[in-house]
Amino acid sequence: MGFFETEEGVQEYLEMAKGHDGRELIEKLSEHLPANSTVLELGMGPGTDLELLSKRYVVTGSDNSSLFIEAYRKAKPEAELLLLDAVTLETDRRFDCLFSNKVLHHLRRTDLESSIPRQAELLEEGGLLAHAFWHGSKIEEHGGLHFQYYEESDLEEIFGDHFDVALMERYEELEAADSIFVILRKR
């Protein structure tokens, strides 16, 4: 059973994530994506960023953890939610943007590479990806979770066959320049 499929794992994540949200990332996204666009959040967790995104966009939340989906659905029964794996993304829906905040770093690089063509298929013509990653060149395992860090050149290589870079910049989450936010436009 995966980390996010246990009550203990979910509670540990909720404690760790307190006080963190993607407010600054969503502000940057708003410079590239018009209001009322459709957005699919990959890995919504407890729904913190989903709430922020919903103030400007028509949002659908998704997660691979049924515990996060069930908890959010109890609080917001009207919410559009999908139980999705970030690699296979098995849905027939299409969106103007896919957004994730420190989610795709849990995928092994080969799985991320496999996910990219599928992400492109889910986007409308000229659609955007907006993803945040940890910056660096290491791989870590903590409590059964995989963490893949990326350099800018890695992300350009991984996404380059399907997307053009609209924005790529480092930002601080825990310490200076420890994170990368990318906005990529579908070719």
Binned, the helix content reads: 25-40%
Strand content: 25-35%
**Tally of separate helices:** 6
| Radius of gyration from the alpha-carbon trace, in angstroms | 15 Å
Shape-level CATH architecture: 3-Layer(aba) Sandwich
Detail the poorly predicted runs. Answer: none
Mean pLDDT: 92
Write down how many β-strands occur, each being a DSSP E stretch of 2 or more residues: 9
Would you tell me the structural class of the helices and strands?
Answer: alpha/beta
Describe the strand arrangement of the main beta sheet, using strand numbers. 3-2-1-4-5-9-8
What is the count of distinct domains? Answer: 1
Q: In the CATH hierarchy, what is the class? A: Alpha Beta
User: Per the principal axes of the C-alpha atoms, what is the gross shape?
Assistant: globular
Distance between the termini: 38 Å
CATH fold-type name: Rossmann fold
Structure description:
With 187 residues, the protein is of the alpha/beta class. It has one domain (3-186): 3-Layer(aba) Sandwich (Rossmann fold). 31% of the residues lie in helices and 30% in strands. It is built from six helices and nine strands. The longest helix is centred in the middle third of the chain and has 14 residues, at 109-122. The radius of gyration is 15 Å and the shape is globular.
What is the topology?
Blueprint: H1 7-17, H2 23-30, E1 38-41, H3 48-54, E2 58-63, H4 66-75, E3 81-83, E4 95-101, H5 109-122, E5 123-134, E6 139-142, E7 145-148, H6 152-159, E8 163-171, E9 179-186
Parallel strand pairs: 1-2, 1-4, 2-3, 4-5
Antiparallel strand pairs: 5-9, 6-7, 8-9
